[in-house]
């Protein structure tokens, strides 16, 4: 592929990646939406707007991985972005929470397709592992950029009216144009040069990477579930302060995404281990921060850690199988990423509550949840440290 063509493909991938955290686009406007539907409780509104789309993403990543074997990725990305756009914007015209739920399901389908396809397009168009890793890092940066833009724009639109915030999803028009102009049209290779059908061939190491993503996100999602609550419960700040924490998290992820290639070159096989230890450090900072400023430092460092670990795991999963199987490998990894996010509150929250009781109430449950997540991510770091040391010794 020529240099100019590669550059165009990168632009297309990056401008689609800004949609990958789109599920949080209206999260800053949740309170206004709850007020618009007094007959529904807070849990129902959050479930309809946030939880359901996240659950839909899980099977869609696998389905999309299957579809890539017979439908060009450009076609699938066009469909995914259009579903994302329609599912996001149409609720602006609705006054029924049940109809909004239907559109959020459509939105979840589109989101699942976009998440799978962004990673698969990197794997398909860039074979060099170092280049692939750098692009995965940049992709994460644009993902975080999208999170910042969505949070700020939707928050301001929500001050006009609860439904106006949904218009933030019009940003997908940029992604739609980028898909049409920049993403190459390639027909899937159904057969090999010998005439045999291309089959998915998973490897043991692929499953290690995919399970690692599941475990990592159980710990990683704890930031969203517990960090903001710690700020308010310890009276370090109010809900606005918690919102700034999310913005600083995304800023950290944005910055690290752009310099990830240099981190990868410096740390090589140990990059994921470094990222995991950095995440653990950020959690400890936020858990024991005596003031809001230090809590913000922890959130920023947390964003840095995320943009190290996520591209590492996706690149590892895609590179641990042959080229023909790499697309499905990244889809499975993305599926387990979302599964880890979904089960996080059912594992980490009870663990935090149990530790709080056993410790005699010295820390609040959300602080113990963060500490439990630290234990999980440190174990993951040690496991990959051992794997890399053995691989280095074998080599």
Automatic annotation (TrEMBL):
Q: Where are the transmembrane segments?
A: 12-34, 46-64, 76-94, 100-123, 135-154, 160-185, 206-224, 236-260, 272-290, 296-317, 368-387
Q: How does it sit in the membrane?
A: Multi-pass membrane protein
PROSITE patterns named in the record: MFS
Pfam families referenced in this protein's UniProt entry, alphabetically: MFS_1
Q: Which domain of life is it from?
A: Bacteria
PANTHER family reported for this sequence: INTEGRAL MEMBRANE TRANSPORT PROTEIN, RESISTANCE PROTEIN MDTM, PUTATIVE-RELATED-RELATED
From the Swiss-Prot or TrEMBL record, state where the protein is found.
Cell membrane
Q: What is this protein called?
A: MFS transporter
Main location per UniProt?
membrane
Could you tell me which InterPro entries the record lists for this protein? Answer: MFS, MFS_dom, MFS_trans_sf, MFS_Transporters
Q: What positions does the domain Major facilitator superfamily (MFS) profile occupy?
A: 1-393
> Keyword annotations for this protein?
Cell membrane, Membrane, Transmembrane, Transmembrane helix, Transport
């Amino acid at each position: 592929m020529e240099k100019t063509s590669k550059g165009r493909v990168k632009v297309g991938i990056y401008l689609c990646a800004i949609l990958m955290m789109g599920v949080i686009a209206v999260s800053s406007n949740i309170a206004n939406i709850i007020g618009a539907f007094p007959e529904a409780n807070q849990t129902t509104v959050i479930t309809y707007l946030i939880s359901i789309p996240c659950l839909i993403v899980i099977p869609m990543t696998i389905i999309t991985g299957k579809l890539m074997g017979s439908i060009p990725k450009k076609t699938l990305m066009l469909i995914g972005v259009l579903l994302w756009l329609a599912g996001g914007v149409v609720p602006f015209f609705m006054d029924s929470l049940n109809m909004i739920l239907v559109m959020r399901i459509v939105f979840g389908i589109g989101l699942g397709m976009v998440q799978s396809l962004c990673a698969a397009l990197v794997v398909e168009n860039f074979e060099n592992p170092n280049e692939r890793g750098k692009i995965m890092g940049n992709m994460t940066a644009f993902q975080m950029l999208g999170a910042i833009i969505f949070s700020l724009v939707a928050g301001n639109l929500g001050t006009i009216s609860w439904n106006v915030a949904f218009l933030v999803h019009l940003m997908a028009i940029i992604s739609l144009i980028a898909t049409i102009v920049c993403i190459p049209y390639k027909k899937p290779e159904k057969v090999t040069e010998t005439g045999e059908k291309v089959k998915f061939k998973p490897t043991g190491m692929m499953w290690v990477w995919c399970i690692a993503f599941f475990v990592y996100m159980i710990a990683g999602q704890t930031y969203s579930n517990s960090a903001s609550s710690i700020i308010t419960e310890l009276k370090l700040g109010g809900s606005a302060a918690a919102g700034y924490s999310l913005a600083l998290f995304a800023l950290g992820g944005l910055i690290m995404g752009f310099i990830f290639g240099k981190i990868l070159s410096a740390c090589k096989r140990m990059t994921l281990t470094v990222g995991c230890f950095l995440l653990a450090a950020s959690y400890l900072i936020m858990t024991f921060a005596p003031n809001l400023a230090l809590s913000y430092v922890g959130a920023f460092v947390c964003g840095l850690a995320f943009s190290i670990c996520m591209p590492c795991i996706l690149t590892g999963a895609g590179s641990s199988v042959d080229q023909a199987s790499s697309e499905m490998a990244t889809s499975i990894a993305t599926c387990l990423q979302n599964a880890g996010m979904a089960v996080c509150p059912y594992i980490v929250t009870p663990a935090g509550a149990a530790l709080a009781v056993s410790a005699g109430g010295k820390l609040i449950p959300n602080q113990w949840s963060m500490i439990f997540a630290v234990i999980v991510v440190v174990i993951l770091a040690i496991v990959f440290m051992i794997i890399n040391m053995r691989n280095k010794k074998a080599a």
